[in-house]
Write a structure and sequence with these properties.
Blueprint (H helix, E strand, L loop, with lengths): L14 H21 L9 E4 L3 H11 L16 E7 L2 H10 L11 E8 L2 E11 L2 E8 L5 H15 L10 H10 L3
Antiparallel strand pairs: 1-5, 2-3, 3-4, 4-5
Length: about 180
């Protein structure tokens, strides 16, 4: 059985070209996280010569470990969160909002949030073909509410440890010590 699916990957794309795309993303994330004032207009669109899988690996693997600032003002210990839109209306809204309305719809749209202290950016990648990714990026504070809500939902579970079985609060432990007459 011969697989006749054409290989759409463009042979002319070198690893350096991919790296250049990712370096541009890194610079943009740094700018928006660390130095952006509210209302700043950023280069919200970048066209990348890599797949979404490669972008995801870069965000979670490399980018999250880097210091995006400088020695005087470090931007590091980044928290990376992946979310997705699955509601068709919200996907269409998001694609329209980001200017991608002509893109073919899939059942979901991935979002990547990069958080640093009190600020965060959202990255919305849309894969045009296996080697062309258009990325929309903006400060989360400027995003529509349904996108901010996904970020909040994804962050939620960490805050309330009481619901995790086996985790005791300090007050429970103090109660037990009284029982023991220590």
């Amino acid at each position: 059985e011969i697989n006749m699916t054409p290989d759409l990957r463009r042979k002319d794309i070198s690893p350096e070209t991919k790296q250049d795309s990712l370096d541009i993303l890194r610079a943009e994330v740094a700018k928006q996280l660390g130095y952006g004032e509210e209302g700043d207009k950023f280069e919200n669109f970048e066209s990348f010569t890599c797949s979404e899988e490669e972008l995801k690996n870069y965000i979670f693997g490399t980018l999250s470990q880097l210091n995006l600032g400088n020695d005087n003002e470090r931007i590091d210990h980044l928290n990376v969160i992946k979310g997705e839109l699955t509601d068709v209306d919200e996907i269409i809204d998001a694609l329209t909002y980001t200017g991608f309305e002509s893109v073919e719809l899939h059942g979901y749209l991935n979002l990547y949030f990069i958080e640093f202290r009190k600020s965060a950016v959202v990255i919305i990648p849309v894969e045009i073909d296996p080697d062309c990714l258009i990325v929309y990026i903006e400060p989360l504070a400027d995003s529509p509410e349904y996108i901010r809500n996904i970020f909040k939902q994804k962050k939620q579970p960490i805050t309330d440890l009481r619901n995790i079985p086996g985790i005791k609060s300090a007050s429970d432990l103090i109660q037990n010590e009284k029982d023991l007459d220590i």
